[in-house]
Amino acid sequence: MSTITQDKLPGLALPYRERPTISEQFHAFDTQHPWVYRELEWLVVQRLAAGAKRIGMKALFEALRWRHPHAVKGLNNNYTALYARRLLAEHPEWSCAIELRRRRSP
After folding, report:
1. What is the pTM of this model?
2. What is the DSSP string of the chain?
């Protein structure tokens, strides 16, 4: 009987300790897709102008996926907190609308 291996599956090519962190993956994605941040920024502006008091990053991600179904490959839900932090770093006045939680890892 032959042995089945999973060496060709995405994410299994590197040993666990050598895989990029979520932050590293995020920075690579953000560098390759700068329009994603600008689009998220525009969505926040639109929602605040429409009277929203709270804005959820997951909802913004879904709006992006809806608007650009073929252009957001690789937009990982793990990036929501990192995009939220980046948005608030550049727009601290939005802190009343976008909630951040304490990070568990650096």
Report:
1. 0.78
2. -PPP--TTSTT-SS-GGGSPPHHHHHHHHHHH-HHHHHHHHHHHHHHHHTT-S---HHHHHHHHHHH-TTT-TT--GGGHHHHHHHHHHH-GGGTTTS-----S--
